Amino acid sequence: MTQLARTAHPKQNGTVDGGYAQEFLTFTLGGEEYAIDILKVQEIRGYDAVTGIAHAPPFIKGVINLRGIIVPIVDLRIKFGVGVVEYTPFTVTIILNVGGRVVGIVVDAVSDVLSLDPAQLCEPPEFASSLDTRYIQSLGSIDDRMLIVVDIEKLMLSADMALVENPLH
């Protein structure tokens, strides 16, 4: 079990465009690399079996008991429809604290913690209406890597996740 730092630091040599570097946890889903705000991450755990919940949407795998807290577990591969849902030794659960609620997300593997300047982040392009981009916060570029930055709080607290009673819209 890995505990992560919860502090964001300004870039050492100053700021870019008046902004501060932001730290992201990067992970893979079906061959694509995603990133989420490190400040939302509570811990990273190996994937363990979950207790299923009857009539839950397919992307909600069930719940785990995490030190006395019942935590719903969402498989992002199923939610985003990417990759083959296969549980390997690299499959991990990222425990998040979003909106005062503890939830877990299952991903293929965790990659890095990266610091990105505002200049390395850009707005996602407009796509046809068939592609749901409302949870993509931005696209990050570092070296030759492109990261899909997910607004994890907006996603986890949304009505279609059905994890909270009064979701954000």
Mean pLDDT: 83
Distance between the termini: 33 Å
Shape: globular
In helices, the fraction of residues equals: under 10%
Largest sheet: 6 strands, mixed
Strand order of the largest sheet: 1-4-7-8-6-5
Quaternary assembly: single chain
Structural class: mainly beta
β-strand number: 12
Low-confidence stretches: 1-18
> Beta-sheet strand percentage?
35-45%
Radius of gyration: 16 Å
Number of discrete helical segments: 2
- List the secondary-structure elements in sequence, H or E: EEEEEEHEEEEEEH
Description:
The protein is mainly beta and 169 residues long. It is built from two helices and twelve strands, in the order ββββββαββββββα. It has a six-stranded mixed sheet with strand order 1-4-7-8-6-5. A six-stranded mixed sheet has the order 9-2-3-12-11-10, with no helix packed on it. The protein is globular, with a radius of gyration of 16 Å. The model is unreliable at 1-18 (pLDDT under 50).
